[in-house]
Amino acid sequence: MKRTMGEQLGLLKVTVVQGKKLVIRDFKSSDPYVVVKLGSQTSKTKVINSCLNPVWNEELSFSLTEPIGALSLEVFDKDRFKADDKMGHAHLSLQPIASAARLKQILQVCSGETILRKVVPDSDNCLARESSISCIDGEVVQSVWLRLCAVESGEIELKIKLIDAPVASSR
Q: DSSP label at 149?
């Protein structure tokens, strides 16, 4: 099945779960928030004051279209009187979750929990540890810890869910 440019592949729900060991950008702490981008779509979490291990648990929604790009995120420290300080950035290729979603359609797995594939950290990705993509009761879900780049320390945990666009029947 050939896919066309700009074709809607589904809805990507990105939950920004938490941050760990984020860097200090203010006097003794930071007031972090996360900006997540996919193509021209941008969304951001709320600011959590004075916290280096923040828990956001915020769900952001994006539409996933061809060509499949990468999800990018940047962490900032909210400053009242000057420009917000950068606290690192990371990206995640969405190719693995998209191909796992196609595999799910082929295998017709729907019930319970099935691991469709694993993604291991390498020089091309920002994974802090191995990430698994599972089909949980018909939904394709990836949990991932991303290591922040251009910064001394910090990791962000995301949970990504790909909800299929309705597949046109070929009859």
A: B
| Residues constituting the chain | 171
Per-residue confidence band for 16, with pLDDT thresholds at 50, 70 and 90: very high
Its pTM stands at: 0.91
CA distance 66 to 163: 15
List Cα–Cα distances, 87 to 32, 100, 136, 149, in angstroms: 8, 31, 33, 9
Amino acid at 169: S
Q: What is the mean pLDDT of the chain?
A: 91
102: Cα separation from own chain's centroid: 19
CA distances from 79 to 20, 24, 46, 87, 148 (A): 20, 12, 13, 12, 20
What pLDDT is recorded for position 142? 97
Residue 85, Cβ neighbours under 10 Å: how many? 16
96 to each of 83, 88, 118, 162, how far by Cα in Å?
35, 23, 9, 11
pLDDT at residue 126 tops 90 = yes
Residue 127 pairs with which residues in a beta bridge? 146
